[in-house]
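Subject: Sanity check before I submit

Could someone independently write out the C-alpha cells for this chain? I want to compare against mine line by line before I put it in a report. The sequence has 218 residues.
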Amino acid sequence: MRLAAIGSLLAIGYGAKVNLSIHLSRSNNVKCIGEEFSRGQLLVVDAKILSSEEDTSSLIDLVVRPGVEYDMLGSGMPLNLYEVGVDGVLVAEHDRKTVKAAATVAEDGPHWICIGLSRNAMRVPSDVLLDLRYGGDAADFTQLANKDHLDATQVELHRIQVILKEYHKTLFYMRERDERMRQTTESTSARLVMFSLLNAGIVIAAAGLQILYYRRFR
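---
Independent answer below. Compare away.
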C-alpha cells in the first residue's frame, strides 16, 4: 500500500494520461491540444471515431509535432501533408478510422497534437476519442511482467524507477531553462543600462550644444 502511494505521488507531473472526446464538424474540422514534453519521453497516442464503420464515412488525420501552435483559421498546412521526420514531426497518420501510434520525443518543449477530418473522405460531423499517454504512464508494464515473470511489487518498483528517471530528466530540463532565462535577463539588463547611459549622454550633449548656441548670440 505504501509503495503504491509513493508511486502515485511520483507520477504527478512526470507521467500523464489525457483522455478527451473531441467533436469535429465541417466548419471546425481540425482541433489541437498542446503539451510540454521532454526529450527521450515515450509518447503513445490512440484515437478512434466514436461510431461503427457502418455509421460514418468520415476518416481522420492525426499529427504530433513540436513548435508553434497550428493555425486553424485557414493558413495552417493541411494535416494530410505532414510526414514523420519532416520538421520534427513525431506522428503522422492519415485517412484512418482508428489510430494507434508510439514515438520517442526528440526535443524539449511544447508539442501539438492535432486531429482533423480527412480531406480524402466525406466530412461528416464526428466525435473522436483521443487517448494520450506519455512518460511513466506510456510504458507497458503488463507486458514486462508477463515476459520476465514479475510479481505486482516488482512491477511497481520498475514503474517507480521509470518515473524517477523522468523526474531526473525534468529537473535537468528545468535547470537548463532557468539558466537560459537568467542569461536572457542579465543580457537584457546590461543592454538597458547601456541604452540608458547612451540616452543620458545624448541629452547632456544636446544641452551643451544648446548652451553654446545661445552664447553665440549674447
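---
OP: Matches mine. For the report I'm noting this point. The chain has three helices and eight strands.
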